[in-house]
Amino acid sequence: MRNLLFKAGLLATALLVAGCASPPPRLAPSEIPALFKDAAFKPLAQAHDDEAIFALSPEMRQFMKKEVAEQVRHKGARWGLVDALYHKRKLLLDYDAAITRNASEAFEARAGNCLSLVIMTAAFAKEMGLGITYQQVTTESNWSRMGSTLFLAGHVNVTLGRRWQETAAFSLDADSDRGMDSMTIDFVPPELGRAERIRKLDERTLVAMFYNNRAAEAMVANELDQAYWLARAAIDRDPNYVNAYNTLGVIYRRHGDLLASERVLRRVYELEPNNPQVIGNLVVALRDMGQHAEADQLQRRLDQLQPDPPYAFFDRGVAAMNAGNFVQARDLFRKEISRAAYVPEFHFWMALADLRLGDLASASKHMESAKDYSTTIKDRDIYATKLDKIKGYRATGYKP
After folding, report:
1. Is residue 38 domain-shared with residue 154, that is, in the same domain?
2. Radius of gyration of the chain from Cα atoms?
3. Model's pTM, two decimal places?
4. Domain total for the chain?
5. Domain, as residue range, for 235
6. Which helix (H) or strand (E) segment is 211 a member of?
7. With bands split at pLDDT 50, 70 and 90, how would you rate the model's confidence at 182?
């Protein structure tokens, strides 16, 4: 299965923190209300509905009665559910990080990021009475970029336990599930699965992650009223989920509420003083307010923590390409790939440099990697088309 990553952070003009594996810092309940500015944003037409996140659509219920039930009879509840959802002849959901979907949206689109697919899988498991455990997995930092905004991706998975109640619709096949107390469904391929620690998540934290993701997506789309209420919803669901406060601070900045932005981001920095993403956000906020001396001091600390920030080698490589220095560009792209091999954009530009240097074999390899690591269905199609073109060059001996 494809790697499934959920968005947890932004950088550049905006930056949100990634999830951490250690117990999160806490804010005092009494200080949280003062961080909100409800009157500055257009009220919601309808309150956010947590139950709708996991709700099964009529199509999902029909799928469960037919496809899932058939697989459960032969393979047991857990294997039956997984086979029905992810086997080619049944449903085969695909990875797509374009947006964060709820359970029914992911099912309808037949695609989702890992958070969306965890939610969708959990929705079916809930209906079947299976035990559910959510987990956050610490991996290497995973970055992507949209325009001037960097996304820091984290990862979640779900573990299905034995069913705690019998239902008429689903009978557990003891032979298929024999000896298995739990089954973890994880969508990260081996090359990305460098987990250091695993931390169990309450469902309220998973819901907070869902709202925080959507807040980040709304902010990128400049839908700031929607973004605010989504970030607030994330904090309401889990007041200890620090990522959401960082999102809120960036939303305030985008909205022009500089004092509110600085106050929230400074509080996040106090909670996570060694987090380079948090420091980067605060540096931007302080410069906006003209507090350059403190911003410079924090920038020096950031440079120590992160001497070569994400995309630094890549941006220099693109500049070298534009200057016609393809050897230097290739070397710089190689450095970026060595620390973040999962970013399709790096492989794509490496392929372009290889083409300029006449190395069609390497260009083909890196374009293949760009296709495999792409995080949206649209991008995979684009890279696949370009890969076919390179293969055509190799077949005919043409030198582009």
Report:
1. yes
2. 23
3. 0.78
4. 2
5. 1-303
6. helix 203-220
7. confident
